[in-house]
Amino acid sequence: MDTSSRPQSPSSAAAARPDHDAVAAAIERRLQAEREKAAADAAAQGLSFDVRNHEKRQEFRRMIDPGILRPNPRSLALEALQTLLKLAENIIDHPDEVKYQRFKPTNPTIKRLLVEPRGTLEYAVAVIPKLGFHPQIEDFQPYYVFNKRHMNDLKIGAAMIKEAVDRELVKEEREQRRRADEKAAHEAAVAKVKQAFYDDRKGRALIDERERVTRAAAAAKGAAGSPAQQDAIADYRPKRRMPGSGHTLSGETIDVDDDDEEGSVTAGRPDDDE
């Protein structure tokens, strides 16, 4: 039997309906957890703002990243943020000095970083009114003038900008160290290859020199035992004979006079009586 069309009992329908009190309690617990986390984050960052400013801080964070940092070169984005931070800190540190409460968009730094590159840094321009600056015309000159009623917003924005700048500077320093380490490793590898090349050339030169000396010694030794070398030695021997007389094994008598270079041989046999 099909029971899908059977009406539900009141108790079953009540059980199927959500418990609005339980849902409300769950939402309240989640919101409370978010507020406590925001308060802890603010305390860790040294902020004096209460939890009610949590959404405003989040708004500034979104405008900074991904609004400014992500789509732009890091160096340009950092310089723009540092300029915004300087504008805010000047007012915070000197709240009663009028000269810090306004700036001209035609200022070269402001113009280069915040006004001209609208396609890339429109978020930086949008941050300016969030910080409490609003455009005005004075003596036909454009200005951004700070309204003191926005001092709290200025402090929140300055804190969020400083948070981002400090974080990005740490990343930049780490990146610079990484590049320096890679460069040093590359230079060390190149130096090692060069040294190995020089050592190989030096070793090859020593081997070649030893082989040359060996070949020269072998050539000299071979030349000393050749017939031509022997003839040269024989020709070099003196041909003059020492003066005197003597007998050969055959009994011949040899007399050499002082004036006879070749000497004279007196042939004869010993006396029969001897």
What is the element layout, followed by pairings?
Blueprint: H1 10-16, H2 20-44, H3 54-64, H4 74-93, E1 102-103, H5 108-115, H6 118-130, E2 133-138, E3 141-146, H7 151-224, H8 227-236, E4 244-247, E5 253-256, E6 264-266
Antiparallel strand pairs: 1-3, 2-3, 4-5, 5-6
Helix pairs in contact: 3-7, 4-5, 4-6, 4-7
Brief rundown of the structure:
The chain is mainly α.
Total number of helices: 8
Strand order of the largest sheet: 1-3-2
Query: C-alpha Rg, in Å?
Result: 54 Å
- Arithmetic mean pLDDT: 75
CATH topology of the domain at 29-175: Methane Monooxygenase Hydroxylase, Chain G, domain 1
- The amount of beta strand, in percent, is 5-15%
Task: Give the total of beta strands.
Answer: 6
Main sheet properties? 3 strands, antiparallel
Structural class: mainly alpha
CATH architecture of the domain at 29-175: Up-down Bundle
CATH class of the domain at 29-175: Mainly Alpha
**Oligomerization:** single chain
Q: Regions with pLDDT < 50 over 5+ consecutive residues?
A: 1-5
Give the CA-based shape.
Answer: rod-shaped
N-to-C CA distance? 169 Å
H-E order: HHHHEHHEEHHEEE
Helical coverage, percent range: 55-70%
